[in-house]
Q: What sequence folds into this?
């Protein structure tokens, strides 16, 4: 149990009672030594630590970002998905909390045991469907009358998003998710016993002008084999043990060396009045502040890199590098 923090008024009242004899200090010590008892509800067993819940939340925050990118590309409209909450509750409570008719996708998580549920609020599901079929993304709830074509379109949309789920969990476990079932009535789903603890990840979802929730139900049996990995200690240890392989360095070097950058050479500068600028005509000559005997400066993204001299290569204007500029930009004249 968390320690209670007393306010200043409560501290003053306690000191006053002790000094006046209304309260005995020895009695307080005896009460402190008594065992503190907390009621435990076995129907609502908490099988995940706060540390593990935080790890699951981090994984799904990454997953929400991946889903946002995926659905934005698929639906070609504004999409925003974020984690609203991560809770552990009995499976029965999860089933009671979702609508009686909704969109349910059931995925296996091979090689992990068990299956997980994606519950998509009808407002969101139909906004997606309307957008895919060429509409503006309006939401019309007719979940009880889904045609076979509409069911297939929805299933395919979420089935193609499984690569994002795989990537989000790759830091903890290599999984190969697969769509097993598509259902609209949660009463027909009995993945685990009613009292089994499940983690429910709720995602706030906005698609165009429609908004709703996507709930991910993950039974304890699915996460049990990888529970030790859902800890800060494991994540920190994994980060410190990461080392790049030689082939990764080689690939990274090749990519950097083949990267193209824009460079420019400044021939010189000058300043004139607006009046002189307006009166410029053919054959007028502007005197620059750059001497022909001094090297020019080659820049990239306004950063001076080399001293160069102008010339030609074939029939093209070119520059020859003389030396590298050390210590930043040259002095402006």
A:
């Amino acid at each position: 149990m968390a320690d209670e923090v007393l306010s200043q008024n409560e501290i003053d009242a306690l000191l006053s009672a002790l000094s006046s004899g209304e309260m005995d200090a020895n009695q307080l010590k005896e009460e402190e030594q008594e065992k503190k008892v907390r009621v435990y509800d076995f129907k609502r067993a908490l099988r995940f630590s706060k540390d593990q819940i935080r790890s699951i939340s981090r994984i799904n925050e990454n997953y929400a970002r991946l889903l946002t990118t995926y659905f934005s590309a698929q639906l070609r409209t504004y999409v925003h998905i974020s984690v609203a909450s991560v809770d552990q509750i009995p499976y029965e409570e999860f089933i009671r909390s979702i609508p009686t008719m909704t969109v349910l996708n059931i995925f296996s998580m091979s090689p992990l045991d068990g299956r997980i549920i994606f519950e998509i609020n009808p407002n969101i599901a139909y906004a997606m469907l309307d957008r895919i079929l060429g509409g503006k993304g309006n939401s019309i709830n007719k979940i009880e009358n889904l045609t076979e074509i509409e069911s297939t379109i929805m299933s395919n949309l979420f089935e193609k998003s499984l690569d994002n789920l795989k990537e989000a969990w790759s830091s903890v476990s290599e999984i190969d998710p697969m769509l097993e079932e598509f259902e609209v009535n949660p009463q027909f789903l009995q993945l685990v016993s009613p009292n089994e603890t499940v983690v429910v990840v709720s995602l706030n979802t906005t698609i165009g002008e429609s908004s709703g929730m996507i709930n991910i139900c993950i039974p304890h049996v699915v996460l049990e084999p990888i529970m030790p990995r859902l800890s800060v200690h494991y994540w920190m240890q994994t980060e410190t043990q990461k080392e790049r392989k030689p082939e990764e360095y080689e690939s990274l070097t090749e990519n950097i060396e083949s990267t193209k950058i824009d460079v420019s050479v400044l021939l010189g500068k000058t300043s004139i009045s607006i009046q002189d600028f307006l009166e410029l005509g053919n054959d007028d000559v502007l005197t620059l502040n750059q001497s022909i005997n001094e090297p020019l400066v080659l820049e990239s993204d306004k950063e001076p890199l080399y001293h160069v001299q102008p010339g030609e290569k074939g029939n093209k204007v070119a520059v020859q590098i003389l030396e590298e500029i050390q210590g930043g930009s040259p002095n402006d004249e």
The chain has three domains: 13-41, 44-239, 264-279+289-324. The two ends are 71 Å apart (CA to CA). Strands lie at 79-90, 103-110, 115-120, 176-183, 197-207, 210-219, 264-266, 296-300, 303-313, 316-324.
